[in-house]
Amino acid sequence: MAQVKMGDKVRVHYKGYLSDGSVFDSSLEREPMEFTLGEGMLIAGFENGVLGMNEGDTKTVKIPPEDGYGPYREDMVLVVERSQVPPNINPYPGMVLQVRSNDGSSVNVTVAEIADTSVTLDGNHPLAGKELNFDITVVEVI
To answer: 118 CB contacts (<8 Å, ≥6 apart)?
Structure first.
């Protein structure tokens, strides 16, 4: 069996979990995920973990923040006046909103905190700054 190499299309099952054991994503209850190595559709640590595996292989990969969703950045947290939130939106912690950046593009932010006159928005990915663990099984090399 050939080892998975860059440019190969693969189908994998995975379970992603944090160091405390909490699962943040899994393909085990659905179809395997299909992707081509090297296209940059997944975090680098996941692709690097699959590289060199064979069809049928299973392994656990630990991914540091720099190979996952990056470090947690305080400069991506913004406190805005409550009056800047449209009146038809009733924000709550954990709510995901889209905001326009200065260049006109849309950015997802999570409502982190609500105060009487302000709302704290967090533009970091929810898994930023965290070490990620994945149990990966290569189901098929296409």
So the answer is: 79, 80, 81, 82
Amino acid 102: pLDDT = 84
Measured distance CA(123)–CA(47) in Å, rounded: 24
The span from the CA of 91 to the CA of 121, in Å, is 10
pTM: 0.85
The residue among 99, 3, 114, 128 whose CA lies nearest residue 55 is 3
Count of C-beta atoms within a 10 Å radius of residue 123: 17
Give me the domains of the chain, ranges plus CATH numbers.
9-70+127-141 (3.10.50.40), 74-122 (2.40.10.330)
- Give me the mean pLDDT over the 51-69 stretch: 97
At which residue do the structure tokens 């692709």 appear?
Answer: 47
Amino acid found at 126: P
* Contact between 46 and 13 (Cβ < 8 Å): no
Q: How far apart are CA 46 and CA 14, in angstroms?
A: 10
In sequence order, what are the residues at sequence separation of 6 or more whose Cβ sits closer than 8 angstroms to the Cβ of residue 22? none
